From TrEMBL:
InterPro entries in alphabetical order: Aminotransferase_I/II_large, DapL/ALD1, PyrdxlP-dep_Trfase, PyrdxlP-dep_Trfase_major, PyrdxlP-dep_Trfase_small
Protein's recorded name: LL-diaminopimelate aminotransferase
Entry keywords, A to Z: Aminotransferase, Pyridoxal phosphate, Transferase
Positions annotated to bind pyridoxal 5'-phosphate: 72, 108-109, 132, 186, 217, 245-247, 256, 291
Family annotation (Gene3D superfamilies): Aspartate Aminotransferase, domain 1 (3.90.1150.10), Type I PLP-dependent aspartate aminotransferase-like (Major domain) (3.40.640.10)
CDD domains in the cross-refs: AAT_like
Annotated binding of substrate, by residue: 15, 42, 109, 132, 186, 291, 385
Function comment: Involved in the synthesis of meso-diaminopimelate (m-DAP or DL-DAP), required for both lysine and peptidoglycan biosynthesis. Catalyzes the direct conversion of tetrahydrodipicolinate to LL-diaminopimelate.
Pathway, per record: Amino-acid biosynthesis; L-lysine biosynthesis via DAP pathway; LL-2,6-diaminopimelate from (S)-tetrahydrodipicolinate (aminotransferase route): step 1/1
Length: 406
């Protein structure tokens, strides 16, 4: 009899987006004639931009010739890509991050899920509610959660994001080791001001905590006074790790390329109190468990950071931002209390019934797929998320259909 990892038995039924996909599949099988509009998972629909495609093709071409063929790449990713990221995302904006603090990977999903491995099983974890489910599930798998009681794990501390606090969790009064933050937020679309983010960095300094900052949606921030990276805040280099991704920024959900910033100044401690560099640990972890992103993908990713690439991705982002504006306007018109949609591709709104009921109701009545808020945590019950990554014509049609339910 082979024993299972008991932690896995503590997980909730199925991963949110798999459950959504299953229900949609079942509905479509029963109703093959119905045209379903998918505004559920945040998956992009517009093609890669021309300069990215060109670099991708060149990368493949190089792989086809003996003289320019590439085998395994450097552990942290190719220097040309890390250098381009350091320049465009950080140096140009006066932020002190060097290429060797950047780790290229296949996704922010895997990095946010894997990073917790570097910490003791007993560390205390504060997680927002609602939240991207990967932060919760990966800590459950690692044995930090305790049991699930009334929709919450007994050993996590939940940072409540509710209509009452405008979906901005309060800074806890006590100490936690690890704190997950995501801004612009998934799922609520809420953003933090520079001062609000500064308060989190000060908290981490005061208590010796580490902040995991998920910036996957930073490209949607349109107001220059709002932070696009936690490293814009003084002192963040000592207390934060940041996850960034090309998925939503440059349409890489199917191509896979992201990057995690681990500053050399973040320290963790052994039982005996010896300081260890978090950067060195992540390097050790990645070089053991990961063999890098393919060369053509890294070449394609580097093209995102050229002046042409930057211009081209802005056009696509503008397209999604306009979708978000259209959806937000319609939800406001219908009269559901809502947030997001301005510096975010997600529109989050209060529903007149519980989340899964509303999911089924929308699917059956108007064939629109969204994401039920409860899938992001207990506070998400009675809320719903729509994504702006659809095709414009589908978004417009969805809005017309939505208006018929009000
Ligand atoms: C979402 O819909 O929340 C995201 O697309 C999921 C992800 O990025 O993994």
């Amino acid at each position: 009899m082979v024993r299972v990892n008991e932690n896995y038995t503590l997980l909730q039924g199925s991963y949110l987006f798999s459950e959504v996909a299953k229900r949609v599949r079942m509905y479509q099988e029963k109703n093959p004639e119905k045209k379903i509009i998918r505004l559920g998972i945040g998956d992009v629909t517009q093609p890669l931009v021309p300069s990215v495609v060109k670099a991708f093709q060149e990368g493949v071409e190089e792989m086809s010739k003996k003289e320019s063929f590439h085998g395994y790449g450097p552990e942290q990713g190719y220097e040309f890509l890390r250098e381009a990221i350091a320049e465009v995302d950080f140096r140009k904006r006066g932020i002190d991050i060097s290429p060797d603090e950047i780790f290229i990977s296949t996704g922010a999903k895997e990095d946010t899920a894997n990073f917790q491995e570097l910490f003791d099983q007993k560390v205390s974890v504060a997680i927002p509610d609602p939240v991207y489910p990967v932060y919760v599930d990966s800590n459950v798998m690692a044995g930090r959660s305790g049991r699930l009681k009334n929709g919450r794990y007994e050993r996590f501390f939940y940072l409540d994001a509710t209509l009452e606090n405008n979906f901005k969790p309060e800074i806890p009064k006590k100490r936690f080791d690890l704190i997950y933050l995501c801004f612009p937020n998934n799922p609520t679309g809420q953003v933090l001001t520079r001062d609000e983010l500064k308060a989190w960095v000060e908290y981490a300094h005061k208590y010796g905590s580490i902040l995991f900052f998920d910036a996957a949606y930073e490209a949607f921030v349109s107001d220059p006074s709002l932070p696009k990276s936690i490293f814009e805040i003084e002192g963040a280099r000592e207390v934060a790790v940041e996850f960034r991704s090309l998925s939503k920024t440059a349409g890489f959900t199917g191509t896979r390329c992201a990057y995690t910033i681990v500053p050399r100044d973040v320290k963790v401690y052994t039982k005996k109190g010896h300081a260890v560099s978090l950067h060195a640990l992540w390097f050790r972890r990645q070089s053991t468990k990961f063999n890098g992103v393919s060369y053509p993908v890294q070449k394609a990713a580097a093209a995102v950071f050229t002046p042409e690439g930057q211009k081209e991705i802005q056009e696509v982002l503008a397209y999604y931002k306009e979708n978000a504006r259209i959806i937000l306007e319609a939800i406001r018109e219908i009269g559901f209390p809502c947030t997001g949609g301005t510096h975010s591709p997600y529109i989050w709104f209060k529903t007149p019934m519980d989340s899964w009921k509303f999911f089924d109701y929308l699917l059956e009545r108007v064939q629109i797929v969204g994401t039920p808020g409860i899938g992001f945590g207990k506070n998400g019950d009675g809320f719903f998320r729509l994504s702006a990554f659809g095709d414009r014509s589908n978004v417009k049609e969805a809005i017309e259909r939505l208006k018929t339910i009000s």
